[in-house]
């Protein structure tokens, strides 16, 4: 039996393209139910091994979906969501439809950008002043932001931002201006990513 591996949920778009997908699959396509589309590839198991290579493929496919046809909004699924068949997958789309619709509304036309600020060794910084500066520069541009773990003593700030496609250049410029004004910090600016940090739809694989 061929199972369906799910990358994310889109708003009714028909998507199909060839790519290097999870577990050696070479084609990604949509399975639709009532204006929701699950973007999937075929897979031999419902419990795919979480390798670094396939985790990267999962993220790469999500980026391709986001870029598809000039820009597509996608509710991303975590790595490893696989279903035994179309019926099981459509049952999930039916049951979680209200949650997916709310998530679509929240992230429509937007993606996630990440910002980490790292102080140099043996450099003292005013964390509160830096956070206030970042807030003044970036919060007016971003639709939402969330704070992430400070997993290192040198990490001064670690945040994810939900930013509209039309605001990307403005946001980039604001980060660049901040970096130019803060020689005491290393700026690690990443993305765009599928907006994992701004979606909270939990479904179970079958």
Automatic annotation (TrEMBL):
Keyword Transmembrane tagged: no
InterPro entries in the record: GvpL/GvpF
Compartments, as annotated in UniProt: Gas vesicle
GO CC annotations on file: gas vesicle
Coiled-coil residue spans: none
GO biological process terms on file: gas vesicle organization
Keywords per UniProt: Gas vesicle
Family the entry assigns: Belongs to the gas vesicle GvpF/GvpL family.
PANTHER family: PROTEIN GVPL 2 (PTHR36852)
Name listed for the protein in its UniProt record: Gas vesicle synthesis protein GvpL/GvpF
UniProt organism field: Natrinema hispanicum
